[in-house]
Amino acid sequence: MTDDRRRGDGPHDETTPIGGPAAGDGGADPVGDDRAHSADEGPGQAPEQPVGDGSNDPTEAIPAVPPAEQGHAYSAMPPEPRPVRQQSDAEATREVPTVPESPQPEPENPTTTSSARPAWVKAAAITGGVVGVLAIGYGIDLAVSSGSMPRGTAVAGIEIGGASREEAHERLVAGLSNRVDEPVAVRAGDVETQIVPADAGLGFDWEATLDHAEAQPLNPFVRVASFFTTTDSPVVPQRDDTALFGAIDGLRNDVDRAPREGGVVFEGATPVAVTPEPGQNLDGQAAADEFALQWPYGETVELPVDTVPVTVTQDAVDRAMNEVAIPATSADLVVTGRDDVAATLPRDAVGAVLSFAPTESGDLEPRFDAEAATGILAPQLAPTEVQPEDARIRLSGGTPTITPSVEGVLVNWEETLEQLPEMMTDTHTGEAVYETKEPELTTERAESLGVNEQVSTFSTGGFSAASGTNIRLAANAINGALVMPGETFSLNGHTGPRGTAQGYVESGIINNGRPDNAVGGGVSQVATTLYNASYFAGMEDVAHTEHSYYISRYPEAREATVFEGAIDLQFRNPFDTAVLIAASADSSTLTVSFYGTDHVEVESVTGSRSNPTQPNTVRLPAGEACSPSSGAPGFTSSDTRIIRDAASGREISRDTRTVRYDPQPIVVCGDQGDDSADDDSAGDDE
């Protein structure tokens, strides 16, 4: 009985899974064990047959059926029940100890394993078939489309897909060639205008355009997409850069502009805000490239521009308006002077005084022009002022007398307008501040100048009526001139311009060694007379020029000429006292005298003539332009000035000046022969 139990005899549970574990002495036989069981293993137990092919494949489910039934191992029919041995009552009541079962691997579902493999193989076969079909289709499509334009291709809106190269060329020429002469709209920043491509040196490079378009795409996805979409192939243009850049530069007058800074201007009494506006400059190279690429497509071409930023912000403009400009023009500015006299800067004149300047931070800085405000207000308060007057030294009965100076009372406008910003934007009122003003030459200063007596005088005469007019004008200009100690006097500087506007007339001059006429002729006589007066007053010679030839009414080597802008007479006062110049002329005589303090005595010594030269004869056409002259020989002469101290008689200096005079030419007018003209009629030189 023990052996029977150990071999696992006993009742069988028909619910046990096929191939599941059986109770025994420690466990069932291993799955796939190839051992044969003997027939004496016990009654009622079918002998176990080897399952499978003996390969010990652990992945196969082993059916618990006799070998004859192995063909039904994966059948859905249930196996026949095994015969059950009848147990005695004693055996039935005996308790059989339970032997722990060794864990066995769960068998796989044979149905599941069998169905998974065919599904995978089927999917792989379908996929391979599809790929093969697509590959065949791709090859056929590529072969069929070879030699024609790619499907779905367009150039500048002209469809050429599937066309031959020749047909595509014809389509492009027919559809695009007229665009060369049609204006193309362009936009550069905020400026819109037009360019004609032909005028800009642009055209079509048909061959290069077709070369680019006919390349067949190899990407299968792109080829599939071409059945449903259109691909734009670019136009390859022909371009003449000289003409193209010329056309682009032709837009600059309209496109380029400097930035407009924000600010405030005034229209009468109304302030006007100037909105800041950035500037722009056309980017020539980029604009040319962009237009050359985009013009064939019939759309507005956007040309690139460089923006030039502004400095002033709109907020700064608004602040300047609200905080300064509007308050400044809200009322007149009134400045009150002495005796309640008022000066007004009216609202409509604010723009002449107030302006705004941009700062680096983007603000507007108000600037108040006090000088401009003074120019508007000062004339209105002039009646309240007392102008300073210099002391004047005049001759009364031949004796110098002093007219006292006058102290001035003037508005100090710098101090008055010190608070001009507040006065214009807030109070709109102000009080004039006055100050005393000393004259340049006070009475005390004039009295200390030592202008007490006549120290020299010199007279000349023999001038014509026309020359006399000019002489009197120049004499009046220098009469009363005060030459201060150490000061240099200039005749041209003192008379100023000597033209018709000043009353001067035409008279005789020496022009290139010959008598002539010009406006201001005769003033050289004033120069000679003034030079001699300064000579004997002991003045220091700074600059003087003698006439080119000798004039008999002047002292030899002690005379002078002038010419406006070229030749001047200048002398310096070397003393510590002033000299007063007194000049007067009548119809025949000019006199110039110096008044001051007699410091020196002056002696003039004229040298003898030498080196005589004979004149040439000059023949000129008869007429008003010709002034006949008998001529005169030239020679060399000299003058020596000896200066002595007036008090002691001590010689201070001795200077000699040598002068060479040219011969005065003999002037013959027409056929008059050798008749001579009056020598003095053309003797004045300017």
Which SSEs are present, and which pair or pack?
Layout: H1 2-6, H2 89-93, H3 110-145, E1 153-155, E2 158-159, H4 165-176, E3 184-188, E4 191-195, E5 202-204, H5 206-213, H6 220-225, E6 231-232, E7 237-239, H7 241-249, H8 252-255, E8 263-267, E9 270-274, E10 279-282, H9 284-294, E11 301-303, E12 305-308, H10 314-328, E13 333-336, E14 342-345, E15 354-358, E16 364-368, H11 370-381, E17 392-396, E18 399-403, E19 408-411, H12 413-416, H13 420-427, E20 429-431, E21 434-437, H14 443-447, E22 453-461, H15 465-478, E23 482-483, E24 488-490, H16 491-495, E25 506-511, E26 514-519, H17 523-536, E27 540-543, E28 570-572, E29 579-585, E30 589-596, E31 600-606, E32 610-613, E33 617-620, E34 634-645, E35 651-661, E36 666-669
Parallel strand pairs: 1-6, 3-11, 13-20, 33-36
Antiparallel strand pairs: 1-2, 3-4, 5-7, 8-9, 10-12, 13-14, 15-16, 17-18, 19-21, 22-30, 23-29, 24-28, 25-26, 27-28, 29-30, 31-34, 32-34, 34-35
Index terms:
elongated, 17 helices, disordered N terminus, alpha+beta, 686 residues, 36 strands
What does this structure look like?
This protein has 686 residues and is of the alpha+beta class. It contains 17 helices and 36 strands. The protein has a four-stranded antiparallel sheet. Strands 31, 32, 34 and 35 form a four-stranded antiparallel sheet that branches. Mean pLDDT is 82; it is low at 1-100, 110-115 and 674-684.
